[in-house]
Task: structure prediction
Amino acid sequence: MEFGVVLDHLPLLVGGALRGVLYAVGGFVIGIACAALIILGRMAWGRWVTIPSQIFVEIVRNTPFLLQAFFLYFGLAKLGVMMPGYVAAIIIVTFNSAAYATEILRSGMLGIPKGLLEAGDSLGFTALQQFRYVVARPMLRAALPALSGQFIIIMLNTSLLSAIAIPELNYEASNLASTSFRPFEVYVVVAVIYLTLSSVFAGLFALIRRRVSGSWGSERRMQDIV
Amino acid sequence: MSLIELNAVTKSYGSHQVIYDATLSIAAGEVIALIGKSGSGKSTLLRCLNGLEQISGGSLRIAGTPISYEKAKLRALRRKVAIVFQGYNLFPHLTVEDNVALAPRVTGKASGTEALKLAHRYLERVGLADKFRAHPRDLSGGQQQRVAIARALAVQPEILLLDEVTAALDPELVGEVLTVLGELAEQGLTMVLVTHEIAFARRAANRIAFMHQGRLHEVGPAEATISQPRTAELQKFLSAVR
Ligand SMILES: Nc1ncnc2c1ncn2[C@@H]1O[C@H](COP(=O)(O)OP(=O)(O)OP(=O)(O)O)[C@@H](O)[C@H]1O
Ligand SMILES: [Mg+2]
Result:
């Protein structure tokens, strides 16, 4: 065991990890916003939004992450659509977040009692008002646990971005493993870093959940309602 | 001119016809009680009046305007015709006052403070002056139902529809809701209410409409219709519920 050389390069690994997290957080936030817009569009315009958005969701969810990255970065380049790796990376993370979040929010919405939607309709709300005042909070609340899990999967998936030369944690780790001839030690440290990040974000999501539920009833009561 | 005019209205779900030939005029200030067996079409007819269900045939005019299912027209209709449901359907994530203030604020263009003031006024009117900041889950069924009534009233509708608003309540809570409805009737609000409370219907309603197998089987002045039902079906229904 020789961790000394790995620890000497710890700043390099941490830098890579932070870049990965940046892609994950940025893409996830934009992705959730897109998913919310998709749900809103479905409420306002019905199948004209539902059909195309569902096609998008199915394509993204049913093809491998790595393949998507290759397609955007290498495949499109052959057609003359060039983009820097970081643009391809943020697009991939955003698309994945949007697709999974759309499904998660949709199932969160299915839990909202039909009567609440009728109440909003009967008060004369537009689709946007209905979404904003009636649907958004119960939907998000119901979706938070699944969103939390999805974020962690997406964060771990950013390790695949090394394949399109994004200098994230996995990328830095491979380099260090081959230059230091200490792959075992390097990957043990990398695993610890990923575990730490996952726990930190799981904790963060738990905190958000507590805040959201704290303002309106205990978990148990909410399950009766939503 | 009558405020609500149903002319030969029909309603079908696919091939299943639920409402047959409903013709009825309701004047401003009138209170109509819809009674009848389960499945006779009371809720369906009521929900047609604010466009929650689309009529399949005949014509329906509210305040002289033929009903239209175009989105903007429906929203305008619903500011005139409010509805209260059996299950309250209060927004669980909002306080009582926000439940009531929401519609005036977002659809009625009242400012936040105006909307709250309005909400407080209607909550006081239904006897809930001490519950402004409570959450729906902390209220009894009767209190929740009164919040739902206040929420509907805050839209300042011309017509209030009520679908079995006491049916989910424990007997001792029914009275407090009926008291509120009785007061609204006295104040001249036009109401159409589906109810199982025959005694209340007799006292608070001007007219009773008895529905039977999707038809308005017998319609007449409340007192006379209950004390001297003309049709055998209504006689049978009344003796069954007594
Ligand atoms: N969305 C729907 N799709 C198909 N059939 C429906 C639908 N809603 C109601 N029905 C049918 O319409 C008929 C009348 O129902 P409705 O709810 O109006 O009766 P009701 O008089 O209100 O009964 P209750 O006293 O039980 O509430 C019933 O046979 C019911 O099965
Ligand atoms: Mg009914």
Remarks:
- Chain A has one domain: 4-225.
